[in-house]
Write a structure and sequence with these properties.
The protein is of the alpha+beta class. The chain has a domain at about 25-70. The chain has 2 helices and 4 strands; from the N terminus they run αββββα. The strands form 2 sheets. A two-stranded antiparallel ribbon has the order 1-2. The chain has a two-stranded antiparallel sheet with strand order 3-4. It is elongated.
Length: about 70
């Protein structure tokens, strides 16, 4: 029986990058709370999710990355 071929980190880098991109493009259950959001009610992709905590013991608010940066 032949031994499995070894792969280097450079050979598997493309595979790892594709897996990471697939995870980041996954939709979440959260919607944007910005009043000026161009897509209200649509779920936020994991790569665009920004979590904001307003005060201790309060609920978290979720924003798109672009909506969050335009509010600040």
């Amino acid at each position: 029986m032949a031994a499995p071929k070894k792969t280097s980190k450079n050979q598997t880098a493309g595979v790892r990058a594709a897996e990471k991109a697939a995870l980041e493009n996954r939709p979440t259950k959260h919607v944007c709370m910005s009043a000026n959001c161009p897509t209200p009610g649509a779920s936020i992709l994991l790569k665009d999710l920004v979590t904001a905590v307003t005060a201790p013991k309060r609920r978290k608010l979720y924003y798109h990355r672009n909506c969050w940066s335009s509010m600040r």
